[in-house]
């Protein structure tokens, strides 16, 4: 049972004209931050490191055993986007009727559509239990 949740979202875009990364960070408990970085290392430092991310106020926790679990997603895909991909694969844009070979193509592609995840990469972790 989850007692608390927190998040950090990092959106990175590369400006081709100025050759600079724009980094937008949204984090629980702080104002949104928009910064610029000339290097990929700077982007990784700002987005990949988590320091002082508030989880829950200690006063809200009773004595007991707890653990911390986390999920890190890189390039998450929204459920709406997944549904649009599935619709497009079953009927590509511009086609409204079934053509010969659609059944075979649809069953073949179905093998790959079932494997579409919620993100390009996902890392999950759990700490050891600890007492308060």
Structural overview:
It contains three helices and seven strands, in the order βββαββααββ. It has 132 residues and is an alpha+beta fold. It has helices at 40-48, 79-90, 102-113, and strands at 8-15, 20-27, 33-37, 65-66, 69-76, 119-126, 130-131. The chain is flat and about 55 Å long. The chain has a three-stranded antiparallel β-sheet. 25% of the residues lie in helices and 31% in strands. The two termini are 17 Å apart.
Main sheet overview: 3 strands, antiparallel
Tally of separate helices = 3
Cα radius of gyration in angstroms: 21 Å
Beta-strand fraction estimate: 25-35%
Give the total of beta strands: 7
Mean pLDDT: 81
- Could you estimate the helical fraction of the residues in percent? 25-40%
Detail the poorly predicted runs: none
Q: Widest sheet: strand order?
A: 1-2-3
Order of helices and strands: EEEHEEHHEE
Find the structural class using helix and strand composition: alpha+beta
Give the N-to-C terminal Cα separation.
17 Å
Assembly state of the chains shown: single chain
Shape: flat
